[in-house]
Write a structure and sequence with these properties.
Elements (H helix, E strand, L loop, with lengths): L1 H14 L6 E5 L3 E2 L2 E2 L3 H15 L4 E4 L1 H11 L11 H11 L3 E10 L2 E10 L4 E10 L9 H10 L5 E8 L5 E4 L2 E3 L5 E5 L1 E9 L2 E10 L4 E6 L7 H4 E2 L9 E2 L8 H24 L15
Length: about 290
């Protein structure tokens, strides 16, 4: 996975130097304020350099070149800037870089946390900071070294894609309360958890909280349940609530027809009951106290 990224970084560094919009230097990563020369940290530094070089219009100054420049300048104090913006800005000026990325390595064994920062060497101030987890603590959703570099240099591009598999046409999608326009049923969103609602005048809303990982496409299967009565009362296939056309129900379902029918049925029932009562035989006469019928 990392080999194509490294190849892309080398090619970008080789072909894009003359047209680089910015030059980014990688300061040697440190542990307890001293340069970390372990094999694992060197591998991680190479991955960070490749991720920076792969960004459009960017030239990278590798950590080894920065370390050599510090030695030649005889300024060993620059090896332990400890996140100091003025110190990192001096490194940037030393190697001709506009931005300097530095980091401190923490953690035990294979699980490490690298605290990274990007400093504007021209203004002498920190631009952004982030963390990079490697080993057992690493999260695939964060994008690894490439995701960390994007967060530092171009945070607006730290996004993922949601692809909606819609089972109805004319549905409207809302993300975090705002209506979004889909292109081929897809939308790019910042990494993180988002509230998604899919609505349609004829169907019950589909509501979910969905996690968006970096640089990945997440499929969302949208299953919507149709309301039981709207199909016979709505004409056509409306796109939204503003275009719903309600049609008059059949004559036999209109209120005044139903009312008249109910009254007529009550009158008819009364007539039938009265007729049956008048046709019933008289009860036999029984004498009471010697009187006549």
């Amino acid at each position: 996975m990392l080999r194509p990224l490294a190849i892309a970084g080398v090619l970008a560094a080789a072909t894009g130097v003359a047209h680089a919009d910015r030059i980014v230097a990688i300061a040697p990563l440190t542990t307890l304020d001293t340069e970390d020369t372990s094999a694992a940290t060197k591998k991680l530094t190479t991955q960070i350099e490749a991720a920076v070089a792969a960004m459009p219009g960017t030239k990278v100054v590798p950590a080894a070149q920065v370390s050599d420049a510090i030695k030649k300048a005889k300024k060993p104090q620059l090896k332990s800037c400890e996140g100091d913006a003025a110190c990192l800005a001096e490194i940037g000026r030393l190697v001709g870089a506009e931005i300097v990325i530095s980091g401190q390595v923490g953690g035990l064994g294979e699980s490490k946390i690298i605290y990274l920062g990007a400093t504007d060497a021209t203004a002498g101030r920190e631009l952004r900071s982030t963390t990079l987890a490697v080993g057992a603590k690493s999260g695939a959703d964060a994008g690894g070294p490439q995701g960390a570099v994007v967060r530092l240099l171009e945070p607006d591009k730290y996004r993922g894609v949601l692809h909606f598999n819609l089972d109805v046409s004319g549905a409207t999608v809302y993300v975090d309360g705002s209506k979004v326009a889909l292109a081929r049923n897809e939308v790019a969103l910042p990494v993180g958890t988002h509230a998604v609602r899919v609505t349609h005048p004829e169907y019950r809303d589909f509501v979910r909280f969905i996690d968006v990982p970096y640089g990945q496409k997440t499929d969302v299967a949208v299953g919507m349940t149709q309301y039981p009565i709207v199909q016979r009362d709505i004409q056509g296939n409306p796109i939204n609530r503003d275009k719903i056309v309600y049609v008059d129900p059949p004559l036999w379902r209109r209120w005044y027809v139903v009312g008249i029918g109910a009254v007529g049925l009550a009158i008819l029932s009364g007539i039938v009951v009265g007729t049956l009562a008048s046709d019933a035989p008289d009860a036999p006469c029984r004498k009471v106290g010697g009187g006549s019928c």
